[in-house]
Amino acid sequence: MSFETLNVSIAGGVCRIGFNRPDAGNAINDRMVEEFAQALETCARGTGADGKPVSIVVIEGNGEVFCAGGDFKAVSETGSAGDPEPLYDIWRELAQGPFVTISLVKGRVNAGGVGFVAASDIVIADKSASFGLSELLFGLFPACVLPFLVRRIGHQKAHYMTLMTKPVSAADALGSGLVDVLADDAETALRQHLARLQHLNKQAIARYKAYMNACSGSADRDKASALEANRAFFQIQRSFPGSAVMSRN
């Protein structure tokens, strides 16, 4: 696949999507949103050249920046930030789509860049990573980022991060839950995760994420859906013996 603002490759059931606007700090513009949506659609529906369905999506930056957020230069030139819905839908697809999404973070993440991280299933960062929400300094606030950030780190921590506007270190992000793994060598950590995650079936991932995204965490409210999902799974097992291996590990 050929893109202007992204580097995209698919192999072994893994799609790597790299932001590729280094001169603009990998800032988000309309073209990047269009291309990212196209890449995710391919991941959801397609396969790589080897015929394997895409079950893992890795998002990464380049150089010293993961993603600096919205392209304010483009906004100042056009006088409009455009429609936020397509970008929000990308983050929702990362959170809910039929694949495991991993943000591999090196360097600075700001504003809308935090949306990509917060929407990911797994976040692996090295010690150079920092995460900031600077919007309130400009009289704005990260309305579209916050639903994903609150889901990941909780209401008060997201509230504090938004109010303070200062970058959060990789270590502090690990402590808050924004980062899952802090590694000296993020690429090595990614390879270790992929070695495990590539054993997962895409249909199982899709079913699990659909269930997990609807899960409220309340034993009472979730009882009906939990029982339904459990019964449906074992119905599949009876219909297709040997379709999955039960393990205590």
TrEMBL record:
Enzyme class: lyase
Pfam family, one: ECH_1
CDD domains registered for this protein in UniProt: crotonase-like (cd06558)
Domain of life: Bacteria
EC number per UniProt: 4.2.1.17
InterPro entries in the record: ClpP/crotonase-like_dom_sf (IPR029045), Enoyl-CoA_hydra/iso (IPR001753), Enoyl-CoA_Hydratase/Isomerase (IPR051683)
Keyword Lyase: yes
GO molecular function, one term: enoyl-CoA hydratase activity
Keywords: Lyase
Family under the similarity heading: Belongs to the enoyl-CoA hydratase/isomerase family.
Name of the protein this chain belongs to: Enoyl-CoA hydratase/isomerase
Organism from which the protein derives: Roseibium salinum
